[in-house]
TrEMBL record, chain A:
Key word Cell membrane present: yes
Lineage per the UniProt record: Bacteria, Pseudomonadati, Pseudomonadota, Alphaproteobacteria, Hyphomicrobiales
GO molecular function, one term: branched-chain amino acid transmembrane transporter activity
Source organism per UniProt: Bradyrhizobium macuxiense
Cellular component GO terms, alphabetical: plasma membrane
Protein name: ABC transporter permease
Automatic annotation (TrEMBL), chain B:
GO BP terms: amino acid transport
Family, similarity comment: Belongs to the leucine-binding protein family.
Protein's UniProt name: ABC transporter substrate-binding protein
InterPro entries reported in the protein's UniProt record: BCAA_transport (IPR051010), Leu-bd (IPR028081), Leu_Ile_Val-bd (IPR000709), Peripla_BP_I (IPR028082), TAT_signal (IPR006311)
Domain Leucine-binding protein per the UniProt entry, residue ranges: 37-378
PROSITE patterns named in the record: TAT
Native species: Bradyrhizobium macuxiense
Residue stretches in coiled coil: none
Length: 339, 419
């Protein structure tokens, strides 16, 4: 790349000056309001299905949003992100079944394990570019999936972790009660999203966008691209793992399907559906996909056709995710109003 | 260039969307009141590779439910089945099972899931305390392992360990008669394949101690090409081959092995052959493959079984599967248990089911029993025979001996630390 070309790219990177602290306070405030609204929902509707829906939204939402940190913010298309979802579910489930430690300890230990595994896998993968990165992450995912299938004595093979995951009460929280699980999932979701939002809005987050747009330039101005990519790879893995733990608590088990490539595929699809240019895009995508899935499977067994048409509509019709579309529509309207 | 995107816009849009979403979500979620009809929920696999089995489960259930409803229903309440597709994903199976109970008001569950899905539904039954009958999962540990045991769950399915004992005893008698000493195995590389093959070989050696296994192959599940496996087996020159491949894998394997004339070179024992889904799909079904019964209307050789198979075929224009008879039996059990308990209350029905023996066209002696100590189905027709390329496809069925099965099963449970 010539100096001239590199210079052209620089124009796009003009970041509006925002008072970082004020924005952070506002994010925290929004998170608090969101949590309170979520916590009050069951009182208004009193439907057990709503609780299940939000718990699943929390699991998939954390997973999909963390994937967006890689895909949307850093431009790393990971096809193997589901491995950390599975790792979280299995790590947590096994810890609870085999050791009987309190839930917060198992939670922290699972995050520690995910950290180590993601650091090793990340160190190998993040050096690779685009398609190679995608395929090697997919390969690692299949490696973990195969390990789960064949390490029967530990994981139960294709039948998964059986016998239920014990959920002993801690600090007055009893996760075997649906309401407690619901509140805990909402809390994890809101905290997770808030943390990821902070990562995305921090200088580090802007570094990631720069790497996405022009890695050569980023490295020329002194950014250690490899290290930045590795850090975000590991951080994203931690949030995906948290999603996996919520799922393990929801189904009271862990199954090899959680680490299969289809989960990664769903993550990518959620991102396509919701949009990758806004922070909440994947969250909207999650709610949309789960809602579609739940309604369509109730109505017809030909859900594949319906979901396929929806994908086509977004891919060919809108050519972007729902949130991208809405945001652009608002901007256009505002510009129109301003003349 | 002015930045046009202000953060506030996206948030406002989000909030509006969330509000709209919440309103949409809430609408259908008003808990339904208990009606006079009794709803029974059934998550099963209606899409993907085993969809045919899931569909055949649904068919059988609807066939039986029709009869029960015509006779007045369960304790005077007409049955309404709510059947949904889990796509074979355990998390979906768990979600649907919860939805069926919590939202649709189903008072009982028939769990038409295989493998991991059945364990996921089992956990839902544990959490919600709803009466649940597993109708498709053959994994022995589902009921044999005391950790799995809950008072409200039952299994109305044949079991891997029963098949292995009967298969090995049949194979040993053939091995002794024909002097088959060198054996090869070829089974899918996952828990079911490994466990079932391991148990078969264990009991085969117990019944015929001079047998040795000279070659093992573990093709991947859903592998399309078996050439390497077939040539490996042919090179080892065994006198007999055991396989627990099933469904599409088994039929592809046989079609490909036919090209190498494998079936003229050794005796083949394929436990999952005698199922119409496999028998009718193979291009040239070789004569003389030994197989366990999955479902065939000629075994047990009773008019009741033949009539049931014909009635199913008349209604759905295809033969029933192994999953069909199991699901039909589950409905028969529910019907009898409700009569015995004179109530549709889950707890009372569960008590009535425990140890219940009912008349059933699929019983070895015309009856089947829901064994009290581990809530699992016993006494069903189980046997082995040899194939011919046209109807009735399998001849000379030799019935397994339930006394031997019980003895060896008890030993097996002990060896696994289950008792």
């Amino acid at each position: 790349m010539t100096e001239l070309q590199a210079g052209e790219g620089a124009q796009v990177l003009k970041v509006p000056r925002i008072d970082a602290r004020a924005q952070r306070y506002r994010d925290v405030l929004i998170a608090l309001v969101a949590f309170i609204v979520l916590a009050l929902l069951p009182m208004v509707f009193g439907s057990k299905q709503l609780l299940d829906f939000v718990v699943r939204c929390a699991a998939y939402g954390l997973f999909a949003t963390s994937l967006n940190l890689l895909v949307g913010y850093t431009g790393m298309i990971s096809f193997g992100h589901g491995m950390f979802f599975g790792l979280g579910a299995y790590g947590f489930g096994l810890m609870m079944q085999k050791t009987g430690v309190p839930i917060p300890v198992a939670f922290a230990a699972t995050l520690a394990i995910t950290f180590l595994v993601a650091a090793v896998i990340g160190a190998i993968c993040v050096r690779l570019k685009e398609i190679y990165f995608a395929f090697v992450t997919l390969a690692f995912q299949m490696l973990i999936h195969s390990t789960i299938l064949s390490w029967q004595s530990l994981t139960g093979g294709d039948q998964g972790l059986r016998g239920g995951i014990p959920r002993p009460p801690f600090l007055g929280i009893d996760l075997s009660r649906p309401m407690h699980l619901y509140i805990a999932s909402c809390a994890l979701l809101v905290i997770g999203l808030l943390l990821m939002r902070q990562i995305a809005q921090s200088p580090f987050g802007y570094t990631l966008r720069m790497i996405r747009d022009n890695p050569t330039r980023a490295s020329f101005i002194g950014i250690d691209v490899w290290r930045a990519k590795l850090v975000i790879f590991v951080l994203a893995a931690l949030f995906a793992s948290t999603g996996g733990m919520i799922m393990a608590l929801f189904v009271s088990g862990a199954y090899p399907e959680f680490a299969y490539w289809t989960i990664s595929g769903e993550g990518i699809f959620i991102n396509m559906l919701g949009g990758v240019t806004t922070f909440l895009g994947p969250m909207v995508g999650t709610a949309l996909l789960l809602l579609l899935n739940d309604t369509v499977t109730r109505l017809t067994e030909y859900h594949g056709i319906v979901l396929g048409i929806v994908i086509l509509f977004f891919a060919i019709g809108l050519r972007k995710g729902l949130m991208d579309f809405i945001v652009e529509w608002f901007v256009q309207r505002r510009e129109g109003a301003n003349g | 260039m002015e930045s046009t995107r202000k953060p506030g816009v996206s948030r406002r849009a989000t909030l509006a969307l969330m509000g709209a979403g919440a309103a949409t979500l809430a609408a259908p979620w008003v808990a339904s009141a208990q009606a006079k009809t009794i709803k029974i929920g059934m998550p099963t696999i209606l899409s993907g590779r085993v969809a045919q089995l899931g569909t055949s489960s649904r068919n059988a259930v609807l066939l039986e439910v029709e009869k029960v409803n015509a006779a007045g229903g369960l304790a005077g309440r007409q049955i309404e089945m709510v059947i949904r597709d889990s796509k074979g994903q355990p998390q979906e199976a768990a979600r649907i099972a919860r939805e069926l109970v919590n939202t649709d008001g189903c008072e009982m569950l028939l769990d038409g899931e295989a493998s991991s899905g059945s364990f996921a539904v089992h956990e839902v039954a544990r959490d919600l305390g709803v009466l649940c009958i597993h109708t498709c999962s053959e994994a022995s540990s589902l009921t044999a392992d005391p950790k799995q045991h809950i008072p409200n769950a039952f299994r109305c399915v044949r079991q891997g360990i029963h098949d292995s004992i009967v298969g090995a005893s049949y194979a040993a008698s053939i091995a002794k008669a024909k002097g088959l000493k060198k054996w090869a195995t070829c089974s899918p590389d996952y828990a079911y394949g490994r466990d079932t093959t391991g148990e078969f070989v264990l009991y085969l050696k117990k019944f015929a101690p001079d047998v040795e296994v000279i070659s093992e192959s573990w093709p991947k599940l859903f592998q399309p090409d078996y050439t390497d496996v077939i040539t490996k087996i042919l090179q080892a020159k065994p006198q007999a081959l055991y396989s627990c491949l099933w469904g599409g894998d088994l039929t592809s394997y046989i079609d490909q092995a036919n090209i190498y004339a494998m079936f003229t070179q050794m005796e083949v024992f394929a436990v999952n052959m005698a199922d119409y889904t496999a028998l009718t799909v193979v291009k040239n079904l070789p004569k003389g493959i030994h197989s366990g019964d999955r479902y065939i209307k000629t075994f047990p050789p009773t008019p009741e079984n033949a009539a049931w198979g014909d009635a199913y075929k008349a209604k759905y224009s295809e033969y029933p599967t192994n999953w069909s008879w199991q699901n039909a039996t589950a409905v028969m059990f529910l019907n009898e248990a409700v009569k015995k308990a004179n109530s549709t209350d889950g707890k009372k029905v569960a008590e009535a089911l425990t140890g219940l023996t009912i008349k059933c066209p699929f019983g070895a002696d015309g009856t089947v029993t829901m064994r009290a100590d581990d809530h699992t189905l016993v006494g069903y027709a189980i046997g082995w025979g040899t194939t011919i390329p046209k109807e009735p496809y399998v001849l000379d069925m030799k019935a397994g001996d339930w006394k031997t099965i019980f003895e060896l099963e008890a030993e097996w449970k002990k060896s696994k630390g289950y008792t």
